[in-house]
């Protein structure tokens, strides 16, 4: 029997009074990788923001639980502490805040939430060295302000480094491949693969098959007009790459 980590049932959400998600149903088991694809404006990024707790979005109906815990009742901070991680499509810069201090504060906040002892500076620096190696993150970048002056590829690599440090149960990667060259894509995807275990799970939101050449999904879902309209295996992504989305739009609109 599948060990369900994320259970989303009939999720509806709106922003500025406009309904974007119109009944999302999604179950993700531990150890699984799910890809969510779909045309622009279909609700892919909205789904990730709603699960992460962005207050700009209002949930009007439905439920979402993470390992049995009601996500929608928690603050964004507590959702993170419970094991949810969102890698942003456009990571923000935080001038004046060093990566070391930022990540140590984030990790120790999570440890406090879980009633664990905080890591000392020495312990954290040792952990940071180990995690940096996963995404080949240069020590100079790790000691700078968060994302300040980073290239697009460096910012995405930094996001996966943060994921490595926090060890989330569910990672949501929102168009992590956006703006990456082939080398950066390989390193970022390699980091994601190294962090995969039979106890965590990953949602990959992407437009393109090229990311899925590196991060192999167990399931592929097509989101269109705020609903998941088709689910399949990795072959569905290949079909979308070849045929585009028009055939799915036509099928759904004809119903």
Layout: helices, strands, pairs:
Elements: E1 4-15, E2 18-29, E3 33-37, H1 44-52, E4 58-66, E5 69-70, H2 76-81, E6 84-87, E7 94-98, H3 99-113, H4 121-134, H5 139-142, E8 145-146, H6 152-166, E9 170-174, H7 182-195, E10 201-205, H8 209-212, E11 219-224, E12 227-232, H9 234-243, H10 246-254
Parallel strand pairs: 3-10, 3-11, 6-9, 9-10
Antiparallel strand pairs: 1-2, 1-4, 4-5, 7-8, 11-12
- Tell me, rounded to a whole number, the average pLDDT: 89
What Rg, in angstroms, do the CA atoms define?
18 Å
Count helical runs: 10
The N- to C-terminal Cα distance equals 33 Å
Fraction in beta strands: 25-35%
Uncertain parts: none
Oligomer: single chain
How does the helix and strand content classify structurally?
Answer: alpha/beta
* Main pleated-sheet profile: 6 strands, mixed
Strand arrangement, largest sheet? 6-9-10-3-11-12
């Amino acid at each position: 029997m599948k060990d369900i980590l994320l259970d989303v049932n009939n999720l509806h959400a709106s922003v500025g009074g406009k309904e974007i998600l119109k009944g999302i149903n999604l179950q993700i088991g531990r150890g699984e990788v799910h890809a969510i694809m779909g045309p622009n404006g279909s609700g892919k990024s909205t789904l990730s923001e709603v699960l992460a707790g962005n207050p700009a979005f209002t949930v009007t109906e439905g439920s979402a639980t993470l390992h049995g815990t009601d996500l929608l009742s928690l603050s964004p901070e507590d959702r993170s502490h419970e094991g949810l991680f969102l890698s942003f499509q456009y990571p923000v810069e935080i001038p004046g805040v060093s990566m070391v201090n930022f990540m140590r504060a984030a990790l120790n906040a999570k440890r406090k939430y879980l009633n664990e002892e905080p890591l000392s500076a020495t312990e954290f620096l040792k952990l940071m060295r180990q995690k940096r190696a996963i995404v080949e993150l240069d020590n100079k970048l790790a000691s700078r302000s968060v994302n300040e002056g980073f290239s697009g590829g460096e910012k995405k690599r930094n996001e996966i480094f943060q994921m490595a440090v926090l060890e989330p149960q569910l990672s949501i990667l929102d168009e992590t491949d956006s703006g990456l060259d082939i080398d950066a894509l390989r390193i970022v995807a390699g980091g994601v693969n190294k962090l995969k275990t039979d106890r965590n799970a990953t949602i990959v939101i992407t437009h393109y098959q090229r990311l899925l050449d590196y991060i192999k999904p167990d399931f592929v879902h097509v989101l269109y007009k705020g609903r998941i309209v088709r689910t399949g295996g990795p072959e569905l992504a290949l079909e979308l790459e070849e045929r585009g989305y028009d055939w799915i739009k036509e099928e759904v609109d004809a119903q």
